[in-house]
Write a structure and sequence with these properties.
The protein is mainly alpha-helical. It folds into 2 domains: 118 residues, Glutaredoxin (3-Layer(aba) Sandwich); 115 residues, Up-down Bundle (Glutathione S-transferase Yfyf (Class Pi), Chain A, domain 2), CATH 1.20.1050. 56% of the residues lie in helices and 6% in strands. It has 9 helices and 4 strands; from the N terminus they run E-H-E-H-E-E-H-H-H-H-H-H-H. Strands 2-1-3-4 form a 4-stranded mixed beta sheet, covered by helices on one side. Helix 4 runs antiparallel to helix 5, helix 4 packs parallel to helix 6 and helix 8 packs antiparallel against helix 9. The chain is globular. Bound molecules: glutathione (GSH). This is Glutathione S-transferase family protein.
Amino acid sequence: MLVVGSYVSPYARKVVVALTLKGVAHEVDPITPFYGSDEFSRISPLRRIPVLIDGDLVLNDSTVICEYIEETWPEPPLMPRSPRDRARARWLEEYADSRLGDLIIWRFFFALSVAPRVFKRDADPAAIARVRDVELPEVMDWIEAQAPAEGFLFGHICTADITYGAFFRNAALVGWTIDPDRWPRAAAWIARVWAVPAFATTIAYEQAIVSTRNDERRAALEAAGARLSEHSYGERSPRASIMLEQAR
Ligand SMILES: N[C@@H](CCC(=O)N[C@@H](CS)C(=O)NCC(=O)O)C(=O)O
């Protein structure tokens, strides 16, 4: 079982945490999508991470992958039981994947951290300020209304909780954390998600990545306990994104 994708990606992290919670042994090829090889293009036609490889099965898209994991290893469940709750869980996950994906990943994390380093492009301060001061607070007001007063969204931890926890890691990596005075329920809920052991180990791996240079990264990840694959779908030079204007 191989997960192709860096622990820093919220979508890849979702899959790694799900496999860990289910106790499914897996290896990770922690590549950044822009550094994918031709072989990566063959397993990921949108050149996106994560990809799950289970024997001769190749799956793309974190939601599709998490559904496969849930159906193949039902215990412990990472979805609620009733059709109503399951539908709500799917919507909450989709909202984060699309809206937080746009705001936190592309217009914040990518602009402030990835674009300057990989594509030598500086962030536009006015665009960053708009996300930080206008759009993210609006989204946070909605998330605050969904956040559970205690525990997790549906009692036990589910894919939807992991998804929100993952996006807010990327916000933290570029210096934005949930203000507990303004959004107290959301702040406490995300802190609980980050503290779940299967999630917390990915924070150690993420730190091993962000605190090292390329050539030191593999050793740092292995020292932190990550199980990495021998073979990699990465290469040394970056390529533009197929899908995203910002990364072309
Ligand atoms: N809907 C996809 C989104 C995956 C995604 O956008 N991953 C990002 C990394 S955080 C990526 O690979 N981006 C490269 C690109 O879009 O060119 C999923 O849930 O897996």
